[in-house]
Amino acid sequence: ARPRVGYFYSGKKPIQSVADGMVDMTAADFQSRPVVITENLSVYDAICQLFLEDVGTLFVVDQQSLLTGVLSRKDLLRTSIGRTELDKIPVHVIMTRMPNIMYCRKQDTLISVAKKMMDSQIDSLPIINEKEGGLEVIGRITKTNITAAFLSLAEDHDL
Amino acid sequence: ARPRVGYFYSGKKPIQSVADGMVDMTAADFQSRPVVITENLSVYDAICQLFLEDVGTLFVVDQQSLLTGVLSRKDLLRTSIGRTELDKIPVHVIMTRMPNIMYCRKQDTLISVAKKMMDSQIDSLPIINEKEGGLEVIGRITKTNITAAFLSLAEDHDL
């Protein structure tokens, strides 16, 4: 459950309007846990991680735990068609690399995050923290989280 | 662009509240085109269709064009790991079958559709028409469509 700082309840129903509720939503309020792998993991092991963790996107980090790549279910499917030696291909060969990675920060509004995902036609963004030398992955936002936010707006206001 | 029956404009901004706008949204307003394949298509050809059409889910129909199954990117990835003979496996072997398919109708509210997707943890629903003997697929709703709806609420009201 996300924190409801600044909400006032009258019985079950918050006084805040749907518009105000929507504007107040941030990436941090609806984020999921990021699943992170290292650059030399094989494509085979990456696919196993994807199923094990039940996510659609994996984030790839270097030895300093800084973001270097992103792997989607689509990337993994493209690589695995008709190939058997998936245990011999390291993920860094097929991943999308920095600086071509879209990301957001935890204080970003969910509206801006939704816009970024729609504009760039991607299903998931890492939430990052700027560190010396790169970006640390601290969360994950997906279209599932936006769907959850849409639904929570409706439910919070008994729509 | 979805029809705006019953909206009144004052300049760019609709007078309707965000709450009313949200309640009025239906599956039909935000749907995508469904991509449909037949039961005997091979898994290999299904994956090609998925990439060609750039969708996350394929709907499988019988010779009467009635819905018999659903195939997700996840189903296809699971099947393709470490196998080469994907052209020899027909999709009906690996698809999720009726009656285990969640679906919706075009007049359903987007709120109810979002709830169905979140409750059943699926990314996409076929929009169907009831026919004698089965269900005809007439559309598709995904979490991308819900994200678009979320964003359009914000943009319609200059949030």
Give the class of chain A from helix and strand content and strand pairing.
alpha+beta
Would you tell me the overall average pLDDT of chain A? 92
| Strand order across the largest sheet of chain A | 3-4-5-6
Poorly predicted ranges of chain A? none
> CATH H level of chain A: which superfamily?
CBS-domain
Q: Biggest sheet of chain A, open or closed, and with what strands and sense?
A: 4 strands, mixed
Give the count of structural domains of chain A: 1
Helix content of chain A: 25-40%
Number of strands of chain A: 8
Beta content of chain A: 15-25%
Do you know the CATH architecture of chain A?
A: Roll
Write a structural description.
- 2 copies of one chain form a homodimer.
- Chain A has 6 helices and 8 strands; from the N terminus they run E-E-H-H-E-H-E-E-H-E-H-E-E-H.
- Chain A has 159 residues and is of the alpha+beta class.
- The longest helix of chain A has 14 residues, at 143-156.
- In chain A, helix 3 (43-53) crosses helix 4.
- Chain A is 34% helix and 23% strand.
- Chain A has one domain (15-156): Roll (CBS-domain).
- Chains A and B meet through helix 1, helix 3, helix 4, helix 5 and helix 6 of A and helix 1, helix 3, helix 4, helix 5 and helix 6 of B.
- Chains A, B: Residues 25-88, 95-159 form the CBS domain.
- Chains A, B: This is CBS domain-containing protein.
